[in-house]
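Sample 1 of the test manifest.
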Amino acid sequence: NAGVTQTPKFRVLKTGQSMTLLCAQDMNHEYMYWYRQDPGMGLRLIHYSVGEGTTAKGEVPDGYNVSRLKKQNFLLGLESAAPSQTSVYFCASRVTGYGYTFGSGTRLTVV
Amino acid sequence: DQQVKQNSPSLSVQEGRISILNCDYTNSMFDYFLWYKKYPAEGPTFLISISSIKDKNEDGRFTVFLNKSAKHLSLHIVPSQPGDSAVYFCAASASGSARQLTFGSGTQLTVLP
């Protein structure tokens, strides 16, 4: 079992470029989440999904879009990257209850 | 406004001693609290949790205490070991919110040999 896999692990983007971060889970979890972690800010929720075909906004959704076309995948898109989006991005999933399983993160730098 | 606060960015303790990490929250709708541990270049991993109907939960060396009237929880690690050195995040959730977790800013624990 791989758990939660995030692709890529590192990326450098130029301002204005676009990219998609992929999160894949093999645990048949219903719920999936995208968080960003910034120094001194902890983890903040960007978007989440309660099942295939559904998405919802979290605390800091501006500048991001998401899609959940397949239950096992949750994609996070940046249409026009900005330096303020430099961060470490974590994907997480859960089935029921409260325990999240996190991926190992994607470190994104926007220059 | 941060709903979950960890006011100590860092904590150093000697191996074998007790580590106490603190967390405060403001949202009275939170009914479940968790602690996550994070090593560099890895994702957070679940450590221990507590429901609002309890005031203590213990798992081996780790104990979480909840004081609802003070909106305060703490994580005790006894005895502390060098392998416990990591960033510890406090998190809280409320029912009916897709169980979104609201995280504190984290405390870097360093256990000195």
